[in-house]
Amino acid sequence: ESLRLEWLYLAVSHDAPLRANTVDAEGNPRPRSHLFTWGYSQLILLLIKLPADFVTKEKMADICKSYGFWPGYLSLCLELDRRTEAFTNIVHLDDVNLLEEEHDSIPETMEEWKYLLHLAQSHSSGVHVHSTQNGSAVSNGSSNWSNCITVENVALLLAKVIGPDRALLLLQECGLTVELSERFTRVCEILRIAEKRQRWDHMVHFKPESYLGIIS
């Protein structure tokens, strides 16, 4: 295990972005710094995905956090069931695309959704301006911040995951409906139409099967 930690340390400290570009003065991720290119990223991800005991995984997470290798750090946080920590750092990274079902980073409970929504609410809007100075954002040529962490973007994701009506109830409970624009209302209407269409398709396919089951 100590050899693996040594390999990980070497991988994150060579051919890597400057730590000042990935970690701020308080030790938090700089916005969009997960988009930087790391020379040994594939090796790093391989090392942290290999089976290891809990203590070793925690040490790996500490190394990734220290150098600002956020893809690895988020993966380890989720693996170690440090989900609120993962959500907090995703908000610092300011990229709603990091909330992906395939990476197990979608909130799983209403409490997790509430936590994430309140994080988004308290997230400084000024970071969206300063993040354009981040080297990774410049290198990717992106000036579109529609995927930033905002209450509305998280609310849209919530509506897609649990349905628009349940999402609206939760947002009302959190007192966040005033932060939503007409865009949210339009998307919810589209989702409702899609839900009705899905229920209709289910009924159309279900009825013949039921009939065949009865006559057989």
Automatic annotation (TrEMBL):
Residue ranges crossing the lipid bilayer per the database entry: none
Domain of life: Eukaryota
GO biological-process terms attached to the record: developmental pigmentation
GO cellular component term, pick one: cytoplasm
Xref: InterPro entries: HPS5, TPR_HPS5
Coiled-coil residue spans: none
HPS5 TPR domain ranges (all copies): 1-189
Pfam families listed in its UniProt record: TPR_HPS5 (PF23758)
Record protein name field: HPS5 TPR domain-containing protein
